[in-house]
């Protein structure tokens, strides 16, 4: 009665097709893997501890951790409600908002940086109203956070919206007949059931924020201790002491792999 | 049936959802169980969701125990109504224990934690699950989940209990047991129950009054025994297992079906009538039978299905028929799809009643 099941060993094709397809496939794999391997091979592993203790690294590390954490919190506090509205609405405007959200995903980060400058700069769309109060956003730590949030928020919102759309809408109908307001439903049922999606979205957004370079250097500059995050430091050190740059890169690679491992096991397939 | 300001349910649900225009009237007294039956997509679930307040009415009204819940201008949200909702797949909150699922309603309505849990215990006990209070839904069988969902729906003392296909997700054994649990619990419930189902057994064993909804309209209402005796639509005929024909009185002693078939009956034959023939009253013969006044038709066999010790034979001819015969006749007469056969029905077995 059951449908014929697929054999566990899949048909791999005949020799000609293995060569015609296999060669480019192997090339694709090499193009991705060799640079990562190069990083590991070229590194002077014994120097990594002392490299990471270089006076410039610690402030950059601290700055990266603070700004990415603040970005993650902003995603959680602002992105979750946005995801909620997107998930519930069938209004045509919603699909436009969702399309708009994906723009920062594909936008060159430098362009994002320019856009942020035009928004928050001295004469920017919003910045012009802050200038009279002596508030200046560009080239400050706040600018780093804004740049990171700009690139990371879409990842978070789309991940959480997906999780929320996966909820059976009848659960809310039942909860409401039981007397729960929509806020109580959200707090007691909706959010607890999408926690894995929220955690996955946070990890994704945080990793994206940690790697942010183009928008940051354009909008926030490259000032040690204030706006110089780890990726920016890598860029600087590559000129001065490539081995330090490699050591930091390996640390960032390790963090990325760690995040990916956490995501893969539980939330991504 | 209750009037405008009386106790119980007085509703006319009129709204359009998708391509179905629903216009269904329901009335019930406290303690009554209304069975709503009909084909899928006919508007049953829409009716339930409108009663719950999840969907808004285009027109009509919902009054429960004299209070106005909704009409064309007025709409109480689900949380403002006193309504319990139980759906096919139970839909328990998967991250909460059975006890907290049942306590969710009282808690949402402002009852303190201790009192809500005590109430939840009582409700779980009433469905025989006091010992499973600490289990998560995934640790419960499907039948237990259904009983927890019922306890949860009743823990807020709703004036109106809505059961939408409450047993349809259960396997047959579990369904039979859960059906009797449900009957026991409903007997002790003083509000109005609206039970949506497509299972005739649910309707006949649980409901006091049946409402058939087809294509958004009520096609028949009545007590189960009234409906069993005199079905008034092709769907209802199928549900109660009778051959049903819309017919017109012909010469005396005859009616003519709308397809032109002629049926001999001892029942009344004036004007527009329904005619029913029980499948067990049909006898099949290899040759044309002779004798007392009866119907005999030359038929072709369209289907043969086994059902326990008997077989149901679908027959096509002047008067399409379903016959129920013994397995022996199937063998003796060589009944197979495509074969020709004579069907005979005594005139006294054909019941007619005004349409």
Automatic annotation (TrEMBL), chain A:
Keyword Transmembrane helix: yes
Membrane topology type: Multi-pass membrane protein
Highest taxon of source: Bacteria
GO molecular function: ABC-type sulfate transporter activity; molybdate ion transmembrane transporter activity
Main location: membrane
GO CC term (a single one): plasma membrane
Subcellular location: Cell membrane; Membrane
Pfam families, A to Z: BPD_transp_1 (PF00528)
Keywords: Cell membrane, Membrane, Molybdenum, Sulfate transport, Transmembrane, Transmembrane helix, Transport
Residue intervals of the ABC transmembrane type-1 domain: 61-263
Positions of transmembrane segments: 20-43, 63-87, 99-121, 133-158, 185-207, 244-263
Assembly, per entry: The complex is composed of two ATP-binding proteins (CysA), two transmembrane proteins (CysT and CysW) and a solute-binding protein (CysP).
Role of this protein: Part of the ABC transporter complex CysAWTP (TC 3.A.1.6.1) involved in sulfate/thiosulfate import. Probably responsible for the translocation of the substrate across the membrane. Part of the binding-protein-dependent transport system for molybdenum; probably responsible for the translocation of the substrate across the membrane.
Family: Belongs to the binding-protein-dependent transport system permease family. CysTW subfamily.
The protein, known as: Molybdenum transport system permease
Lineage, highest ranks first: Bacteria, Bacillati, Actinomycetota, Actinomycetes, Micrococcales
UniProtKB/TrEMBL annotation, chain B:
Gene3D superfamilies: 2.40.50.100, P-loop containing nucleotide triphosphate hydrolases
SMART domains: AAA (SM00382)
Short name of one Pfam family: ABC_tran
Domain Mop span(s) in chain numbering: 290-354
Keyword Transport: yes
Keyword set, alphabetical order: ATP-binding, Molybdenum, Nucleotide-binding, Transport
GO MF annotation terms: ATP binding; ATP hydrolysis activity
Residue ranges of every copy of the ABC transporter domain listed in the record: 6-240
PROSITE patterns the record matches: ABC_TRANSPORTER_1, ABC_TRANSPORTER_2, MOP
GO biological process: molybdate ion transport
Name the record gives this protein: Molybdate transport system ATP-binding protein
Organism for this UniProt entry: Humibacillus xanthopallidus
